[in-house]
Amino acid sequence: MDFVNIPLFAASALVFLSVISGLFSTRVGFSFLLVFLLAGALAGEDGPGGLHFDDFRLSFWVGNIALAVILLDGGLRTAYSTFRTGLKPSLLLATVGVAISAALTGAAATLLLDVEWRHGLLLGAIVGSTDAAAVFALLKKSGVTLNERVAATLEIESGMNDPMAVYLTLAFIAVIVGTEAGAAASGSGLHTIVATFVLQFGIGGALGVAAGLGLSALLNRLPEASDSGGGITALLLVSAGLGVFGLTGWIGGSGFLAVYLAGMIAGNRATARVRVSLSAMDGYAWLSQAGMFLLLGLLVTPSEMLSTAGPALGVAAVLMLVARPIAVWLCLAPFRFRANEVWFISWVGLRGAVPIVLAVFPLMAGVPNSMLLFNVAFVVVLVSLLLQGTTIGYAGKRLGVALPEYSDEQRTRAVFGDFVLDGRAPVGPVCEFYGLPAPDNPQAALADWMSRALGRPAVVGDRLPLGSATLAVRSMDGARIAEVGLKLEESAPGDA
């Protein structure tokens, strides 16, 4: 039985030690995900563990299953109410944003790695999307309370941009393999790529919606006392999600999109039944993340990465400091985000397991230079988790997007002001009382005037200048502003 016992002991010890290390590492800001990834690398052939592991097929299989579970869990936790502020910008970031980021990063990779442009763009596609596992986990652990617009945009984007990255990766692999075979990309090749895009998103979206509706109907019909702890419901959700993922991919659709949509619809249409299972689902998601990151870490041979460390760090820098910010600024320009919000969303472009899993695709397809692409993708993920992942809390506070806790009276007054006004109060009398310039239509409710002046769905923390004062949204009642904070500027000495 040693062929069972020894691997089982080694795997369980590795996970156990990684979890212990992760619990202590969070005190200094390191993420669990980074610890698992490094633990896998240390257990590999270049580390103290000395384990030789190069089964890319197994890693690809495990990675896809883990991503399906993580996206399902993220979908179950995405409330429809977040769509009020986050859906439109998220959809643009998840499609156009990924394409822009991939193109700019690919151009830099072509120059820095001295590879053919198709391989550069393939690398850009591999690292082009943010990672749902990293974003969901690190936003929770950052200790920062974000306003609804920023939080919803980041979470929905990370859950929905994987299909675009997968599509772009497969498209460039097809272009490279076709060119190598002598079938130069032509009009027919472009037609095939466009048709594949439509099929991937069309089939994935349709099956995801259908599965979500069917699963929610089933959950609502289950006996209420059949699963008080939520464990059986969580098992039902995971098995259904994996089934949707596999079936969608089998018939040519995007399984990533389908499983996220199915989870989101089920979570919103069968809220009571799903809510009791979220604790168990959290366990499944963490197990998936741990197994996936450990396995992907085992694949890496650090000694092989040293020769390309410089160019790889250059690719990571271009992605984080140039490509991602440009993509975010262009995509969010129509939605009137504040500059500090755009910079924060740009910085939280976390890369995690998805780029490493996608980097396995070229290896399995026999693409030239595929091991180089895999090593560079791994470096990009390490840098992203190390720099971006550990500074989310600091960046949120430094850029002023973190909302104060209401128990912190000093910071609450600094953000929202010293006076609390009812959103239903007429704006004219309020301005007259505080000596502020009266806006047009002074009989309008303060909440309605602020909503029109903002020009976008209001969220807690939104601010507007009005004469010598600043008005801030202090609380919301659904989609309507309930309370407004007012902060008067201090007069300079000698002012009248």
TrEMBL record:
Gene3D superfamilies: 1.20.1530.20, 3.30.465.10. Pfam families: CorC_HlyC (PF03471), Na_H_Exchanger (PF00999). Residues 412-490 form the Transporter-associated domain. InterPro entries: Cation/H_exchanger_TM (IPR006153), FAD-bd_PCMH-like_sf (IPR036318), FAD-bd_PCMH_sub2 (IPR016169), Na+/solute_symporter_sf (IPR038770), Transptr-assoc_dom (IPR005170). It is found in: Cell membrane. NCBIfam families: PRK05326.1-2 (NF003715), PRK05326.1-3 (NF003716). This is Potassium/proton antiporter. It comes from Caldimonas mangrovi.
